[in-house]
Amino acid sequence: MCALPISPTARCRSRLTSTIDRCGRRVAREASALVAAASIIVVSTTAAQGAAPVTVVEYYNATLDAYVMTGRLPEQAALDAVPRDFRRTGMQFSGVAASGAFATAGDVRICRFYVSVPGPASAFTSSHFYGREGIDCEALLAQLPSSFTYEGFDFTVANLLTTSPTAFPSACPDRAPVRVYRLFRSNANGRTSNHRYVTSSATYEAMLATGWSGEGVAFCVTTASDVAQAPEQGFQRVLTGAAPNVSPFSSTCSIAQSGTNYIGAEVEPYLALNPSNSQHLLAAWQQDRWANGGARGTASAVSFDGGSSWASSRAAFSQCGGGEYERATDPWVTIAPGGVAYQMALGFSGQESTPSSISAMLVARSADGGVTWGAPTTLIRDAGATFFNDKNMMVADPQDARYVYAVWGRLLTNGGGPAYFARTTNAGASWEAARSIYDPGSTNQTFGNQIIVLSDGSLLNFFTDIIRTATPASARGSYLRVIRSNDRGQSWSTPLTIALDLGVGVSDPVAGRVRDSRGLPSAAVSPTGEVFVVWQDARFSQGAHDGIALSSSKDGGATWSEPVRVNARGDVAAFGPTIAIRPDGTIGVSYFDLRAASAVGALTTTYQLATSSDGKYWRESGIESAFDITQAPFANGWFVGDYHGLIGHGTSFGALYAKVTGDPNNRTDIVFANLAEGTLKSVPPRYSATTAAGVAIESAWLREAALQAADRAARARLRRDEALPSSP
User: N or C: which end of the chain has fewer CB within 10 A?
Assistant: First the structure.
């Protein structure tokens, strides 16, 4: 984030609704229950200032979603020097420099401790604690826990006339009539806990309304300024609409089509980062999902401030979005260096594998980074029962804005499915004709094609190779494979097998089938050139359930490491992996799992982020609170998306995902979560990536089960009518 020696945040171990006073007394009574009662970011220094008036200033760090308060002039100067990381909120109040042995009668000095508290894997490890002299400071110093470092007094303010922290509103003396209110937000969904101090009662009430806990009046000061404002929400932003405006499309659009349509349900989001501007993000998703295939259209949003705010937009792929086709699906976005944005989708009409079927791969270009979109370019269009285009992706070369690559599967009625490819070499002014770059032959099919670009301009295309009928090169089975192009897509190598694909998919005997990411690999390249790929695989449980497998290559895809499991819980099903790598080389893998699911009823699902600096040792942090996936749309299984968005930028990861709301009239919303460095740092426990038992890999029944699951997953993406579950 910046080069300053900034201490990371910490979370409380329990839900704190007490004031600093009460927290200090609790610490004195029981050091083992010690809690960091503040979550702020400050530059550590203990240099005392002279006995003179000071102004205590508040800052906000959008990346960490944390409020900062300091009365130390050197710290203020340091924070002001990095405005992209810390900005003043407008809240400040008067105080006096803390000097001498005692405060003036009627005043109280505010001490500060640096706190480092071990916690679970999703906790933060450090923070600062502010307390009152005579109440907190002495109690802490008398039994100074190993996790507390005393940093002296920060400033002096007037004492409350009413000292009880629960006596709200507390009385302030006439000479210091301004109340400074304190609020607390406990850690949740992987973010830090945080105390905030405000002097505006309107701000205080606004924060209470968004879930912060009010802790009454903390200080009394002579003067203050505070602009009334809603609380910052840099950690999470809901990008989609709320009832009754749950869909951007007309209520009368597509009403003649058959099937169950989930108005307001957004699924399958993808997220792109501008390689030349980490503040520029682009998102897209399916809008108003149909149970029997596709959506009423796609929608998108763009951010130019790292995800703090978003502006909605829409490309004209479907009729509801102003385009030609009845439905659209599989949205994918990418941004070229310089900021030109591209959005790709599958547009289709009629019923797949019938004479009425029409399918097309479409690309829209945005010269302003995603604010507005030009008319789509058609890369391929097939009419009739023979072909159906499906499961597309695209990527811009991060070093050369002229090149953008698109890939997808072109499915045949007999079950075949070669990988098709198209590219532009002139920044979208024109596209070369689509062509096959790998055909497994007969009734075999590629699925989940995904291209990444290496630093030298070479391309790697990952895919699941579903071999239903054995060939001279491949036995019957499902394989994770890769092909390489050294000339920017003009020619391609023969496929190289990374691993057997042994995913079996996710289902529950009571709740039914989850439509997961079975057969859809996700790949990324690190700043050092090491390539990583993740996918669902049941080898680690000997076929009992899927976990998240990872393999890596240090030689540009020529050889690959043995797959290892990177999800923290090996005893429950995990699915939907997405990988991203930060500029510092930290690997992030997001995924869903069923650790919170019960034996009956709701299929409770959690969303996690595993991070590692080396691919061997991992830590896990929660992204989203648990939700019941059976309240999501049903589309050949409970469905939040075949894929999800994850980027690495600065010292953060950014996740874009569909959140189940619990509202049957607006089943899912798209959320962007900023997972900052502070939210991901933790102390042990950490866990090691684990390999699979050889017996699982050699198991004939598991290979056949994985092939059947791959075949089922591939076919499930096509539009087809299917009865909905009786109890959605």
Answer: C
Q: What is the DSSP string of 199-230?
A: S-HHHHHHHHHTTPEEEEEEEEES-EE----P
Whole-number Å distance between alpha carbons of 727 and 628: 13
Which element (helix H / strand E) includes 623?
strand 617-628
Give this prediction's pTM.
0.76
Closest by Cα among 370, 377, 441, 437 to 407: 437
Q: How many CB atoms lie within 10 A of CB 603?
A: 22
Residue owning tokens 């909905």: 724
User: How far apart are alpha carbons 571 and 299 in whole angstroms?
Assistant: 37
Q: Is the pLDDT of residue 164 over 70?
A: no
Q: What is the pLDDT of residue 167?
A: 45
* Chain centre to alpha carbon of residue 386: 38
Q: For residue 528, count other CB atoms closer than 10 A to its CB.
A: 9
> Rounded to an integer, what distance in angstroms lies between the CA atom of residue 124 and that of residue 89?
24
* Residues 243, 666 contacting (CB under 8 angstroms): yes
Cα 608 to the chain's mean position, in Å? Answer: 9
126: three-class secondary structure by DSSP:
strand
Q: Is the pLDDT of residue 383 over 70?
A: yes
Residue 320, φ and ψ in degrees, nearest 5:
-65, -30
- Per-residue pLDDT tens for 699-719? 899 999 999 999 888 877 665
Is 671:659 a contact under the CB 8 Å cutoff? yes
Report the amino acid identity of residue 474.
S
Q: Is the separation of the CB atoms in 139 and 28 below 8 Å?
A: yes
| Cis omega (within 30 of 0) for bond into 231 | no
Q: Output the six-digit token pair for 706.
A: 């994985």
Q: Which tokens hold the place of 666? A: 């607006």
**Residue 48 per-residue DSSP state:** P
